[in-house]
Specification:
Blueprint lengths: L2 H8 L13 H12 L10 E6 L2 H15 L13 E8 L5 H18 L3 E5 L2 H6 L1 H9 L9 E10 L21
Antiparallel strand pairs: 1-2, 2-4, 3-4
Helix pairs in contact: 2-4
């Protein structure tokens, strides 16, 4: 089977991570693939913020627990040592689609490099909170209020255990018109 197709079919969302920090060069390679993701009209409005700072990570976990109405102590990023926050300029008419393709591309890159990931929502709400503005500022992203919208997060790291087996797919979801 083609290596790309095999990677796509083997990728799983992981919901338990080892605390081991992945090598910085692997994280950089994954994030860089996001720059090459397909995008409408050549848009470059998507920004990826790599968060490995433990204090900032804990702030993000706490805020996401509030947003998701989870009890303190739950980690909505499943212990992943790296959180990628994908944001987009709201003025890009296709920001949600472009940002989603960036996330999907980075998920496949992670799988191909032996790392695991899980797409996490709530980035929109996070960026609407003062912590979101602090994150943008610390990342050196200059903005006017409301300019950037959160598209999603990518929890990134090594799986704590074996990834789950794929569930059967319903072929009836494919139709052909010949």
């Amino acid at each position: 089977m083609n290596e790309v197709i095999e990677t796509i079919k083997n990728r799983r969302s992981i919901r338990a991570y080892l605390p081991t920090m992945p090598p910085a060069d692997l994280v950089r390679d994954i994030v860089e693939t996001g720059l090459y993701a397909p995008r409408s009209m050549g848009s470059e409005s998507i920004r990826t913020i790599v968060i490995t700072d433990k204090i900032m990570r804990e702030k993000i976990v706490e805020l996401n627990c509030q947003i998701g109405h989870w009890k303190k102590g739950f980690d909505p990023f499943y212990g992943a040592p790296v959180i990628l926050l994908i944001v987009a300029d709201r003025d890009d008419a296709n920001h949600l689609i472009n940002g989603s393709v960036v996330i999907a591309t980075m998920m496949l890159a992670a799988e191909s490099l032996g790392l695991h990931s899980c797409w996490i929502h709530r980035a929109k709400e996070e960026l609407e909170h003062p912590l979101g503005q602090e994150i943008l500022s610390r990342a050196g992203i200059f903005f006017r209020p409301g300019q950037y919208v959160g598209i999603g997060h990518l929890a990134l790291g090594y799986a704590a255990g074996d990834p789950p087996e794929p569930e059967p797919r319903r072929e009836s979801r494919i139709s052909y018109i010949s």
